[in-house]
Write a structure and sequence with these properties.
Shape: extended
Number of helices: 16
Low-confidence stretches: 5-63, 326-355
CATH class of one domain: Mainly Alpha
Strand order of the largest sheet: 1-2
Radius of gyration: 27 Å
Structural class: mainly alpha
CATH topology of one domain: Serine Threonine Protein Phosphatase 5, Tetratricopeptide repeat
Strand content: under 5%
Number of strands: 2
Distance between the termini: 36 Å
Order of helices and strands: HEHHHHHHHHHHHHHHHE
Largest sheet: 2 strands, antiparallel
Length: 355
Amino acid sequence: MTHLTRSFYSVFSVVLLGLCLSGCADSVSVEAPVKPQASSSNIKSKASGPQIERKLYTPTSSREPEKEIDDEDDATATLLRTAEKMMASNDLTSAGMLYQRALSTNPDSIAALKGLARIAELREKPQEALQAYREIIRLDNENEAAHMGVAKNLMTLGLHDKAIDQLNKFRDIKGDSPEILNMLGMAYTRAEEIPGHYEKAIESFKTSISIDPDRLTTQNNLGFTYILAGRLDEAIAIFEKLVDDPRVTIQHRQNLALAYGMAGRENDARKIALQDLPRAAVEKNIASYRKMRQKALGIMPDEPKIVLKKAPVKKASPAEAKKEKPKAETAPVAAPTMPAADAVAPLAPPEPAKQ
């Protein structure tokens, strides 16, 4: 089966893409099933169905942070280095104060603005991050990391069309780069309001790969977008090649299992999935993929009907009938409901590729 019908999107991709963007790093990645982590603070739990991790990555600058700090005056550089140590120890409050002090000594410090943007993202405050990244662009219109930062946070806010405009602005200034094109593909993947958005995403990912064929995460994104578009044979071809790469992770293998499952190749899906997940989680995933596939193809079996048997009515004797008192009102019996399906393994973004 090369293509599923367009209803594949309404049944499957809404489940996976109805939530916020999972990752927008130097190498943005889409979601893939991983081992269940019900206790993780990053997982948004639901009663059933695949879950998505919402944690955001931080864009990586084309310049090394240490080099940016070295370009500062001594007072600002000292503050920035101390702030970086606070960031490393996860003391965001102290780091933020130090970045603000660095800005007071040098209002044009790009390193300080980037630090404040990172803190805003970790605190899930995209508007503050946008403000910092836009100030960097005002100071350096060719700063790739800042343009990516703006686009990422626009996507976090659901403004995918504006994110696309931002990335295209950078392309007009500096031309294409694999990182920008990869993020552009992610923006198109999410931009449901744009006609042909999957095709545009696929084109962006392919162009990125043509520039940097070694970027594993972009290949993963291309394969997963094929899944969302219902082009399962092409997705399987991508992921079957990826699993032979020594850098492959659990997420890539589980994406292949997902593609197999949605294509009806359940034995292949089970074989791949069992390399990383416990059998119970694998079976739940496969059952979920089977239901979604059946719905997409319009062959979902009807749920069994439950028939309630009426209790026999006992006739009262003449003496009991005379003594019978008015019956108290009783609450109506609620219609029985089918039990909710068990939750399957949650979804999470693959780790970013090496720079």
